[in-house]
Design brief:
Elements: H1 2-5, H2 9-35, H3 42-63, H4 65-84, E1 88-90, E2 93-95, H5 97-114, H6 118-133, H7 136-143, E3 155-163, H8 167-180, E4 185-193, E5 197-204, H9 211-222, E6 227-235
Antiparallel strand pairs: 1-2, 3-5, 3-6, 4-5
Helix pairs in contact: 2-3, 2-5, 2-6, 3-4, 3-5, 4-5, 5-6
Function: Virulence factor required for growth in low Mg(2+) medium and for intramacrophage survival. May be involved in regulating membrane potential by activating Na(+)/K(+)-ATPase.
Subcellular location: Cell inner membrane; Cell membrane
Keywords: Cell inner membrane, Cell membrane, Membrane, Transmembrane, Transmembrane helix
C-alpha cells in the first residue's frame, strides 16, 4: 500500500524505458549468437542485459549516481563469473571465450541502459554486433593463411606410434632428441593406439618452433625400427 502512495510516474517511466532498451539491445546481440547456435543465445543475452539494467536502475533510484557506480562494478565481476561457465577446455584448445566476451558486452549495454545512457547502450550493442559479424570474414581469412612459426603463438605436439612393449625406449628417444634441440616438454601422454600399439604425445612448452627442425626430429624417430610413425602438429587456441 505504501508503494502505491509513493508511486511516481517519472521514475517508473525511466525504469520501463531502461529495461525495454536493455531487452531490445540484449536480444539483438543474442539473436546473432542464436543464429550461429552458440552456447549463450537469444534468451541468455537478453536476460544478462535486462538483469544488468535492473540492478543499475535500482541503485540509481535508491542511492543516486554513487550507488549506481558501485553496482556497475559488481555487475562487471558477476558477469565475469557467469561467462567463465561458458569457457571449456577441449584438449589443448579453449572454447567459449567469444561467448563469454559477448555476455560481457550484453551486460555493458544493459548497464548503460539502466543508467539512462541510451546512446552509449546503442554504441555498445553495435560494437558487439560488429565484432561478431563484420570481423568474422577477417578472422576466417587470417585462419586460412599458413602459420609462420616465429609470428604465431601455437602449442606444438610431437606424436610417436610405437608398440606397447617398446614405449619406454621410444619415450627416452623422444625426450633425448627434444632436449638436444632445446625444446622443453610440458606433458608426455600415452594413449592406446589399436590393439598392440600406443601413441606417445609430447606437448612442448614453447610457443615458437622451427618447422624444419621438428621435421628432422620426426624423421630421426621414424628411422628407428621400434617406431612405426612419428609426426608433429601445431594447435592454436581460440
Amino acid at each position: 500500500m505504501q508503494t502505491l502512495f509513493n508511486f511516481s510516474l517519472s521514475p517508473f517511466l525511466h525504469s520501463a524505458l531502461a529495461l525495454v532498451t536493455a531487452f531490445v539491445f540484449g536480444s539483438s546481440i543474442g539473436y546473432e549468437r542464436q543464429v550461429r547456435q552458440r552456447t549463450a543465445g537469444l534468451r541468455t543475452n537478453a536476460l544478462v542485459a535486462v538483469g544488468a539494467a535492473a540492478f543499475v536502475d535500482m541503485a540509481l533510484r535508491l542511492t543516486g549516481a554513487d550507488g549506481a557506480v558501485r553496482v556497475v562494478s559488481y555487475v562487471v565481476s558477476g558477469v565475469g563469473f557467469l561467462g567463465a561457465g561458458t569457457i571449456m577446455k577441449d584438449g589443448l584448445n579453449v572454447r567459449g571465450l567469444n561467448t563469454a566476451a559477448t555476455l560481457w558486452g550484453s551486460a555493458a549495454a544493459g548497464a548503460c541502459a539502466g543508467a539512462g545512457l541510451y546512446d552509449s547502450a546503442l554504441l555498445a550493442t553495435l560494437a558487439v554486433l560488429s565484432a561478431n559479424t563484420l570481423l568474422r570474414p577477417v578472422v576466417d581469412s587470417i585462419n586460412r593463411k599458413p602459420l609462420h612459426d616465429r609470428d604465431s603463438e601455437v602449442t606444438y605436439q610431437l606424436c610417436v606410434i610405437t608398440t606397447s612393449n617398446e614405449q619406454q625406449l621410444a619415450r627416452a628417444m623422444v625426450e633425448e632428441l627434444l632436449e638436444q634441440a632445446q625444446y622443453p616438454v610440458g606433458d608426455l601422454d600415452v594413449d592406446p593406439f589399436g590393439d598392440d600399439d600406443v601413441e606417445l604425445t609430447a606437448t612442448l612448452l614453447c610457443t615458437s618452433a622451427d618447422s624444419a627442425e621438428l621435421d628432422r626430429i620426426a624423421e630421426r624417430l621414424s628411422a628407428k625400427a621400434y617406431i612405426k610413425q612419428a609426426f608433429w602438429n601445431p594447435s592454436t587456441t581460440e
